[in-house]
Design brief:
Layout (H helix, E strand, L loop, with lengths): L6 E14 L13 E11 L4 E6 L12 H16 L3 E2 L5 H6 L6 H19 L3 H5 L5 E3 L1 E4 L5 H14 L3 E5 L6 H11 L5 E4 L9 H7 L7 E2 L7 H10 L4 E3 L6 H10 L4 E4 L1 H4 L2 H13 L4 E3 L6 H11 L22 E2 L9 E3 L10 E2 L1 H7 E8 L2
Helix pairs in contact: 1-3, 5-6
Length: 380
């Protein structure tokens, strides 16, 4: 009789590194030259090791979580909860980490997704295949931060279009929206795949203003209102013709179900790190597929390690809309993996669906050279 495979984590090592940014002025009105990154290695009792990344910032700007809160949560609660526990399948980790530990979704995701990668290594299969992925390529997309002037944004959008991106998402906020999108639309023409992301900075008082914005035909308006305002998103969707896309509002499959029942949007941006890991992300994917709701794979400011997880998620069959995933060289002077994630001239990225695990090689020497602190947790 064939033995049932199980997984037991023996060791978790947290590692903070600092990496230099490529073109730092693109990322913010207040650019920084380097970025803090939280990487994690997970090792099972058979000595199999994989790398994971916690997709958080060093400040609570776009999420309550930060590198420091994630470090604390993994060290004190999440790591001890899972170390030494026998797992029959990585799908068990979601409920295991949910019991008695509120929030800390990105920290949970870094560990939960790492167990999926370990599982794929042990099975000799790709992470994409283990997740149920079917797509061997994905459509690349790019997100452009709010810029100081419309002309700077137009230059960036024009360059993105020349590289073949299938979606160009322009971040907007009150005071930097209609003029910016309008300038890009006028410069790039009616066929350019322009979308906008409100980053939760609007309220229903801006409904008429956002209606005016729709005259420039964005593909979608992502997260215009605060994440918790599902009812108000539903009211806004009733008032404008352009499809709303929810991002930060979707924290688990339950909020995706609420979005559907309220009519609070027509598209979902699926991010595993935002919902606690792959199990919830897959459930949201399946829900969207069942209800024929369009969806795409989002991304964060990740190194090549985190990008491997996003690419694997993007291989799921219903995530057909252009992703938010861009090549590594757009972000980093040096990256954590080889080969680097690249995009073809037709705007596609390859999914390493026939390779084992993450499908890339982690550059451990490079990471060692940029490490500023480490901590190892060991199973009792």
């Amino acid at each position: 009789m064939r033995a049932v495979m199980s997984l037991r984590l023996a060791r978790i090592t947290l590692r903070e590194i600092k990496l230099g940014l490529q073109n730092p002025s693109e990322w913010s009105l207040f650019p920084i030259e380097e970025r803090r990154v939280l990487l994690i290695t997970l090792t099972d009792t058979d000595g199999v090791t994989t790398w994971s990344e916690c997709s958080v910032d060093d400040r609570p700007t776009s999420s309550p979580e930060t590198i420091d809160t994630a470090w604390l949560a993994i060290t004190n609660w999440i790591g001890p909860r899972i170390l030494g526990t026998s797992l029959g399948h990585p799908a068990e980790v979601d409920s295991l980490l949910d019991r008695g530990i509120q929030g800390h979704l990105a920290a949970k995701a870094a560990i939960e997704m790492g167990t999926w990668a370990l599982w794929s290594e042990r099975k000799g299969n790709s992470l994409a295949r283990v997740l149920g992925g079917k797509n061997d390529t994905l459509l690349g997309g790019i997100v452009l931060a709010v810029q100081q002037t419309p002309s700077i944004l137009v230059d960036q959008a024009r360059h993105a279009l020349s590289l073949g991106y299938h979606k160009i998402t322009i971040c907007i906020q009150p005071g930097a929206d209609i003029e910016y999108l309008g300038a890009a639309r006028e410069a790039l023409g009616p066929e350019a795949p322009l979308a906008v992301d409100g980053m939760g900075t609007y309220s229903l008082e801006y409904a008429d203003h956002l209606t005016d914005l729709c005259a420039y035909q964005p593909l979608l308006i992502e997260q215009p209102l605060a994440p918790g305002d599902l009812q108000q998103h539903a009211e806004l969707q009733d008032r404008i013709g352009t499809s709303l896309c929810l991002d930060e509002s979707i924290t688990h499959v339950g909020t995706a179900e609420a979005m559907l029942s309220l009519g609070a949007g027509r598209i979902i941006n699926v991010k595993a790190s935002r919902v606690g890991g792959f199990s919830q992300a897959k459930a949201i994917h399946d829900l969207c597929q069942h209800h024929a709701m369009p969806a795409f794979c989002g991304s964060h400011f990740e190194t090549g390690i985190g990008r491997a997880y996003s690419v694997a998620l993007a291989s799921l069959p219903h995530l057909r809309l252009p992703s938010d995933i861009s090549p590594s060289t757009r972000y980093w002077r040096e990256d954590t993996v080889t080969p680097k994630w690249e995009m073809t001239a037709t705007g596609r990225m390859n999914v390493p669906i026939t390779q084992t695990g993450l499908g890339v090689t982690v550059d451990v020497d490079m990471i060692d050279n940029h490490t500023v602190r480490t901590k190892t947790l060991v199973a009792p």
